[in-house]
């Protein structure tokens, strides 16, 4: 059995966390803010919104942790790709947090709307639409950076045989489709959800593999292959 780096299983957990954090957190927030009467009802769902926001925040922390933990491992193989990957993960996290802040602004707006007696003031609806649009664009940009920034990561996984080839190749395809889907969404084509499925399946598969098998990096012994310049 090949010796493994202890960080590998931690990374496995972090890659699986979105199943419990962002997916459930964004689902809760969507339940509140996708309601036709969200301006009048969101103010009464503060606890749900807070729960969803904390889950999304946990995901953003996990995203940065993935980049930070991967950097010293990938840097032994290719420093430029390692830097690009950790940078993409940090940018993804910041953008997701920006989108979260925009949604939380809807909660404040809802509270003001209720205090105003639910008056049909155009300004409330305009501000709400701006907040929702900002959250949507922040998310799509986050997926664009994630997709593009992870291509090199998958290339290193494949080139240095850190995981089975089919997993690494599925990651290359999945992240490329994710980036394409994000661009299309920004141009008004609602296909991003479908094009994000392969990338999501890759992260689940990679997470399970790392959790059960680890990374073939003997602790403190460098990389399993000759580093790229």
From TrEMBL:
<feature type="transmembrane region" description="Helical">
    <location>
        <begin position="94"/>
        <end position="116"/>
    </location>
</feature>
<feature type="transmembrane region" description="Helical">
    <location>
        <begin position="190"/>
        <end position="211"/>
    </location>
</feature>
<dbReference type="Pfam" id="PF14329">
    <property type="entry name" value="DUF4386"/>
</dbReference>
<protein>
    <recommendedName>
        <fullName>DUF4386 domain-containing protein</fullName>
    </recommendedName>
</protein>
<keyword id="KW-0812">Transmembrane</keyword>
<keyword id="KW-1133">Transmembrane helix</keyword>
<feature type="transmembrane region" description="Helical">
    <location>
        <begin position="165"/>
        <end position="184"/>
    </location>
</feature>
<feature type="transmembrane region" description="Helical">
    <location>
        <begin position="49"/>
        <end position="74"/>
    </location>
</feature>
<dbReference type="InterPro" id="IPR025495">
    <property type="entry name" value="DUF4386"/>
</dbReference>
<feature type="transmembrane region" description="Helical">
    <location>
        <begin position="136"/>
        <end position="158"/>
    </location>
</feature>
<keyword id="KW-0472">Membrane</keyword>
